[in-house]
Specification:
Elements lengths: L3 E2 L5 E5 L2 E4 L7 E3 L4 H9 L6 H10 L6 H11 L3 E2 L5 H9 L1 H17 L5 H10 L2 E5 L5 H10 L4 E5 L23 H12 L24 E4 L5 H4 L7 H6 L3 E7 L2 E8 L7 H11 L3 H9 L12 H19 L9 E5 L7 E4 L26 H4 L2
Parallel strand pairs: 6-7, 6-8, 8-9
Antiparallel strand pairs: 1-5, 2-3, 3-4, 9-10, 10-11, 11-12
Helix pairs in contact: 4-6, 5-6, 7-8, 7-13
Length: about 375
Amino acid sequence: MHPMVKPALRRAWRERQTVQFGVTPAHAVTVGPVDTATGALLELLDGTRGLPLLREEARAMGLPDGHLDTLVTRLSAAGLLDDPPAGGPAAEALRKRADSLDRLRPDLASLSLVHPEPGGAIRRLVARQAVRVQVRGAGRVGAVVAGLLAAAGVGRVEVLDGGCVEPWDVSPAGLPIESIGERRDTAARHLVRGAAPIRPPRAGTAEPPAPGSGEPGLSLVVICPRDGLTAHAPDPATATGWITTGTPHLYAGVIEATGVVGPLVLPGGTACAGCLELGREERDPGWPRLLAQWRSGGRRGAVPACDVTLATTVAGTAAAHALSFLDGELPVSTGARVEISPPLLDWRSETIAPHPGCPCGASGKSEGQDTSGFRPSHETMAG
């Protein structure tokens, strides 16, 4: 191990023998008492020295044997230490691609705080490269989600959509104005390739796969329809295949100046689109009739009420929830939905309960049921 105090945390002395790492309450840790020699030893924890050399430095400072190891243990337990050489061969290969890693350094720093174990950040960044995500929709929300996931290091981001790019599809964070008139799926692929720090091979020119390797299964589907109704009131029929194959999927979109993120559906474990629809029908007997009319396409051709700032906010939130899941955690959209709308822009959260009449089977899970089986395994994703 080459201990390094995480550079993402700002350091300041509260008083002569107490040092605080971090500014925000979510990550700040106070360490003390710290004498002058230990303070000097802290300065040496920069990732350039292994433990044997650090022990020699500590002895030269007059510190007793075992002091360095005790300090490292305490700092590691507090989530303050990283180990720059950690992560194995895949991480070492990424570190050698300095141009790519430089673009990902802010993401790496953020991961080092969210996942405090030494080497946890680089392992998750490497694991993202083996992940395959499908984004359905290439409008103001979907295109941005796809670009963000690619920029965050997700190795394979596929975008499915039809038709051609319209002027109202473009946004500064999504499809560029030059793509107007181009096929949406083609424009989205260009966006993803340009955003990816480590670009995947072009179709038809891929390097030969390693023995035993193949196309990875989908880790997640993100449904971002240009018609936000499909995110607000998703059709259970379109999710049948994902429920059957156990493919996690997340809904996100904007309808009538209201942003929607969630639910993140873990098939058989949390509420799905069918549960959402059945629950709404019970609360509102007129809902099926309204929904049938809305889905009939009466507003076909109308420009959606999807302003660029709200669409970008929703896309960023959805991408963050997707990454949280892909990195092994369950975001608040798991079995729930959050909404935001101007002018107040306050987030409202609604828990979606599994419905006993839905064939997805989630209602058989007791409240608080462990859904850890849906968390992607970092070792598995890294190959």
